[in-house]
Design a protein that fits this description.
Layout lengths: L1 H27 L22 H8 L6 E5 L3 H5 L3 E2 L2 E2 L3 E10 L14 E8 L2 E16 L12 E2 L2 H13 L3 E2 L3 H16 L7 E7 L11 E9 L6 H17 L4 E10 L5 H6 L1 E2 L14 E2 L3
Parallel strand pairs: 10-11
Antiparallel strand pairs: 1-4, 2-3, 4-6, 5-6, 5-7, 8-13, 9-10, 9-12
Helix pairs in contact: 1-2, 5-6
């Protein structure tokens, strides 16, 4: 009986979506539409689609998979119609998967391809994994008369992390191959093992965007940024920085000008403008884009 009820609900929802699709087509033909998208919609960036909508719009049937809205709030609420067509007719969502715990290498937007982020579900913490390539587009009309899953919520601080992660995919810096190789020898081992303890790593290097011969060093500045919302974060970041410096000092082709830990409350906007965030999924300039926030 329960299975039949679920099937019936799914058929009803699909019928509603079909009707809304027909309405959407009428919209493009300058015909009156009803119902219409409203600025009062409950959908916002970070909303999670209800299971019914996720099934009907995206075909999600796995109970451990969800769809997280990633469009900006202004684009979601935009209901302006120009020449018979909506200016913002779609909502973007990314398929998310429930995970048991967060991997520090994928938290705090450290990895531009993969994000581990904390939601609240029924006031209990839960963790989601978002993959950048799993983005989907949904017509707004298909969402009329529906609402997001109210059991999920995303805090303001985690919404900011989501926004940083979304932006990072289009603002990454491509490091020279030779610098990639030299840094990777130390960064991979030292940072990936301690990613849970830090917020980010920012670097500056000279000469910028230039491949150097093996016998010519890059000047390097390294700043390990501590998350001051966590207990003893400065002390832990300091210990990580010391190990990182010891590893960097052993490498050829790097002239370490500065390597220090700094609190996120002290790392200024000016600092972010003169440095580049180093992301742990780094790849070379010639093979494919590297994963760090680009220069300002």
């Amino acid at each position: 009986m329960d299975a039949m009820i679920r099937v019936w609900k799914t058929l009803v929802q699909r019928a509603k979506l079909l009707l809304n699709s027909c309405i959407f087509m009428n919209l493009r033909q300058n015909q009156p539409i009803e119902p219409s998208w409203s600025q009062d919609t409950l959908y916002r960036q970070g909303s999670v689609l209800s299971s019914d909508v996720a099934v009907c719009c995206l075909g999600i049937t796995n109970g451990d998979e969800f769809a997280v809205v990633v469009s900006h709030d202004c684009d979601i609420t935009n209901a302006v119609i120009t020449e018979g067509a909506m200016k913002e007719p779609f909502v973007e969502a990314i398929i998310a998967r429930a995970v048991d715990r967060m991997d520090g290498n994928c938290s705090q937007a450290k990895n531009s391809r993969l994000l581990h982020i904390e939601f609240a579900r029924n006031n209990q913490s839960c963790f989601m994994e978002l993959v950048a390539t799993e983005k989907r587009t949904i017509g707004k009309i298909a969402l009329v008369n529906s609402a997001p899953d109210s059991s999920f919520s995303l805090s303001d601080s985690n919404r900011q992390i989501l926004q940083r992660w979304l932006a990072a995919r289009y603002r990454r810096h491509a490091f020279p191959d030779t610098l990639n190789h030299r840094l990777g020898l130390a960064f991979d081992k030292k940072l990936k093992q301690s990613a849970d303890e830090i917020m980010a790593v920012f670097i500056n290097y000279e000469p910028r965007n230039k491949e150097l011969p093996e016998n010519e060093p890059y000047e390097l500045w390294v700043y390990v940024v501590a998350d001051t919302t966590k207990w003893e974060s400065i002390e832990k970041a300091g210990a990580i920085t010391q190990k990182l410096k010891e590893g960097l000092d052993k490498l050829k082709g790097l002239d370490i000008v500065e390597c220090k830990a700094v609190a996120d409350t002290e790392f200024t906007l000016a600092d972010t403008r003169r440095t580049i965030e180093f992301r742990l999924e780094h790849l070379s300039l010639r093979r494919e884009p590297f994963g760090a926030i680009a220069e300002h």
